Amino acid sequence: MVVFLILFTALFAIILAYTFYKRRVARHKKIWQEKITNLISEIIFLNEDEPLPATLIPDNKKLLLKRGFRHDIIDELIHAKKNLSGSFTINLIKLYELLKLDQDSVKKLNHPKWHIKSKGIHELSSMKQIKYAKEIFRLTNNENDFVRNEAQSALVSFYGFSGLRFLNVATYPISEWQQILFLNKLNNVQPKELQAIGKWLQSPNESVVVFSLKLATNYNCYQFYGAVIECLHHSSLQVKINALEYLKKMPGEDLHDHIMGYYGGENKTLKLLILDILKDTGSEKELNFLLKQLHNSDDGIKAAAAQTISSLHPLGPSFLQSQLFAEEYPWNEIFLQIENDHAA
Amino acid sequence: MTILVAEDEMMMLKTIELRLKKDGHTIILCQDGREAIKKIEELTPDLIITDIMMPYASGLEIIGAVKMKGGRKIPIIVLSAMGQENVVLEAFQLGADDYITKPFSPNELSVRVKRYIPEAIQM
Predict the structure, then answer these.
(1) CB contact, 8 Å: B14 with chain A?
(2) Chain B: residue nearest A33 by CA?
(3) What is the Cα–Cα distance from A316 to A161, expressed in whole angstroms?
(4) What ipTM does the predicted assembly reach?
(5) B111 at the A interface (CB within 8 A)?
């Protein structure tokens, strides 16, 4: 009974102490939050050429020595920067630099734990600290996905297209999501020099080749036509798909000969893509090739070939109806689909 | 003009307050949706600026509460994050008058607010 009472009292004391501690932390956090809000409000509406008030540091000297307070300011500055635009963001960066918060971020960048490291990169990137690009570049091929992705994104944020130079040394895969992010960031950028894409198309890293094909397609780089044709013989299906997407957008004079010669040895996905390219860019010259595809054992390929023929032949769908058993399955359904497409 | 601002992020709330006070407006601050709805029931602001995603009650619920209250029309400006186009459409269907996508410049907000001054005073 006595033991039970002692244990109960100890447990009660621990809970009480923990609750007290938590409340104290919460109270501190609230006070800090108010201080930080006031600090940022003091500078946010200053004009671009106006210096930050000299009293900022002396007024908050004690608090600025606390690591937790400095981390909270960084978080708040990044958050405010995400929500605000225009000259206000310049003042946020000025405050970050005045309080030497970049040194805190660099400490995180050099931390052995991956989540702290990637947070450090994110902070430096958000606060446009280009002076640390060299340190960040070293992390673009880090073994940890999060660190690597954050470092790569930071370089693209700093330098735009030129920031993609990490692709020269990337040995880890660039994820699909990461590629979308880069393309989104580069959406409104028109680079002067695109020759690097040619080098990336030869990369031993499959994802780099895929991404460079997307870049070449986005920037309408016809100069890489020959290299993209070579990509049709790559071992990766994704590379081939993206090469065909490029060729669909930028067909060369000899494209049809290339893809029709290549068609036989490829799988259904690529065959359908080739038929789609022929539908968009072909002519009556390709009809013989297409008529042969009507005898393919796969109904999907039959349907795609029939649709391509209907759009290329001067007589349209009626040419096919005169050639085939239009009332029999699967042709009856294929024709119905073609007629619906034509009507639309 | 009396403007009710509902925004859960303290920093944003303070920034909006400072900018609009500069223009001579009286600002009522609310840090969550429930507080905003309560204040709308008690007071009648000339304009409401509300974030969409907030604790306890969303910006859409605030628009609904304004509609329920009836009386004179209170213009509503919605603050939305990028990629919330569907929610913005819903806000317009519910009766919002304007929206601003984050990140935004407080100066832009100030200009948009000015558009509603005559409307608020005339009604």
Answers:
(1) yes
(2) B10
(3) 45
(4) 0.81
(5) no
